[in-house]
# Entry
Amino acid sequence: MSDQKKNSSFKKLTAKERKEKLEAIIPDIKKLAVEYYRLTGKPLGVTGEIAELTAAKILKLELATARTKGYDAIRRSTTGKEERIQIKGRALEKKPKSGQRLSRIKTNAPCDYVQFVELDISTFDLRGIWEAPYKKIVELLERPGSSARAKGALGLQTFKKNAVQIWPKK
# Structure
């Protein structure tokens, strides 16, 4: 099928239909990701998508369209205010190795918050969601002294120390 035909069928779905179809296939994708990791010791490359869909479902977020610059989802307040959120996901062992980092956090982006979605590597089930103001994370990334931070990669523990766990609520 050509890209043009794929895009055409994608556009024909309503947001509700798309959401329902995605929720229906996620369990199968999670099973494949778990089996792939078990067989190879490497991630399948769907962790970010699973994290985004999981956070959107749990927190009632609206996912941004693909390739939206700077954010992955929108949270609408009861007053109608929109908050733009970058979502970072990692599938981790029960006791993660030290030095684990989030994927690149885009700086100079139209963003209000960054969320970290932690998934269990053995099931891809949700363990927790942490959230921090985007400005605070950018300040941490801009501190001198770390080549990883200079590339937009923040350590998990640093992120968690500067964030609030929003699911499950503590």
Observations:
- The chain has a mean pLDDT of 90.
- The CA atoms of residues 85 and 113 lie 5 Å apart.
- The chain has six helices and six strands.
